[in-house]
Amino acid sequence: MRLIRLLKRDLAKESTTWVKAGIISKSQAEQICDLYGANYDQNESSHVGYHVLIALGIIFIGLSLITLIGANWDDIPRAVRMGGLITSTGLVQLFGLFQYKKGKLNAATFTFFLGNILYGSSIILIAQIYHLGEHMPDGIFWWAMGSLPIALLIGSSWLTLFSSLLALTWFFLESNIGFYPSVFPLFFISALYLLIKNKQNVLLFLVTIGNIGIWLNYSLAFLWRDTRLLDFHPEHVFVSTALFIFIYGLSHFLYGFQNVKAKDYGSLLAVWSLRFGLVFMLVMSFEDPWRELINADWNHLISSSLIVLTLIAGSIALVIRSYRVQPLLAILGLFAVSFMGVVFLQWEYQLRFLQILFNLALVGMGIWLIVRGIHSGISHYFYLGVSTVLATAFLRYIDLIGNYIGGAVLFAFFAMILLGAAKYWKRHLNSETAL
Amino acid sequence: MKKNIIVIGIAIAVFFQISVLVGEYVSASVPLWFGKEIRLKTIPVDPRSMFRGNYALLNYDISRIDEKKFPSYEDLRNGEIVYIQLVTVENGLYGFEKVSLAPPESGVFIRGRIQNRRWEEDRTYFRIKYGIEAYFAPKEKALALEKDLAEGGIAVILVSDSGKAALKEVVPNLR
Description:
Number of helices of chain A: 17
Largest interface: A-B, 48 and 46 residues
Oligomer: heterodimer
Structural class of chain A: mainly alpha
Largest sheet of chain B: 6 strands, antiparallel
């Protein structure tokens, strides 16, 4: 997967330099940019800066209004406060509507954003005037719920992102005290609709995927709960791991499309599932997480196994089309051995076995990433591979497996890998020069 | 989608936002319009709000209830709605009678939400919030009120049929 497609602005900038140097023509540069969905004229990048500054300015207008009202709170009669809050929200939103009717979509989006901030501030301030502060999540829910329809109607990814983040805040506030926010899927389904319909928005995409994962985990906590609280169970670790494997499969599936947007989302998923996968493996390279998993009560094994099997079957089905089954099979093998080891073979020495297995897997991943980075010329993979090996070495230095002799052997092994990788790279460069 | 339909849709969405704000106002005002007046003993403590100006924070006897008085206290979550049945205790003041998770069928009761569970003096208590804990006043007035009510005061509360409460005023003990 080419990560260069995620660096569109850099690509556009570089292609301008190539045109100026006479290496390629302008039309060729435009064709290259089109291939990756980049804007050769870089109008978009200057617009991004402009939009970010406007959005920040609007946030400060909102803060200024709240501070002004707060400072003069006692001098303003209650009816005026109420009327002022409701009227200002209504007027700003209607002005946004007026701009939208005139065809000024950008100006309308910013006005609606300001209107949504005023709407949320009004909810908070009215709640405070009337002392309704006993359950704050309700206010955040109505804020998110009120912001969503406008976002969907004008097809704004940024307003949808704003609403999704509010919904996520509401979701956490409710679920952390044991309530299950059942309306939450409405927000990520709406976001998915806009992601398919609109041009790409990386942040909305990542937040939406995150929201789906969080919702799935809390839904399982709700189904598996023993008390009225939403507690996490050991089964969550395995379902989440299977979910990441599914996301990895989905990344290949999306990358297989000709569509630039699908390819970009595929690349994003691949990069982030890889990063999360490595962090998870680093956590599991310690002994304690394995001990906790082995000693935990596995009370929901059947239902969790069914979910895991479904996700794995899904990931295989998604990857088969891309003919990149080997890495997935290696991941599934590691996953199966760990799962069987923890759940069915609860022996004492197995702790160490699983720990060593994951450390070796980390080193293996490091080698694979270094080689992949060299072969494909993707520096991100190369440095990620080197970082993985170094992080593993550092963690094992502060947390030795076994005694100092075992540690020394492990470090010698790491040294061999890094020196071997360096030699491999040199040979690769030589063979390229010879060609 | 046609632009006209989107414009109508946005107008409905704006109307929805305004309805939420008006609904919030009406729901908060119901006890003030139709509520039954009750009086509760209170002790104010100072703080101030960044958004609202100044207010005195009021503490009531029913703000802290022993967990043993709840029907199934082990399972209770923060944010859980509870109903406190009140009874006249002395000089027209109301006090705690019992607590339930469903609205009582008769009598005067007030609706609150569990804030947290605390261990104090070898016992476990639930802290409960009713939305009548903040009394707004200009800074000088809030500080004066805090001084006047140092020995405690009486909060005049209006309670609707659903148990929702609104704070009308706070008066010194002697009045």
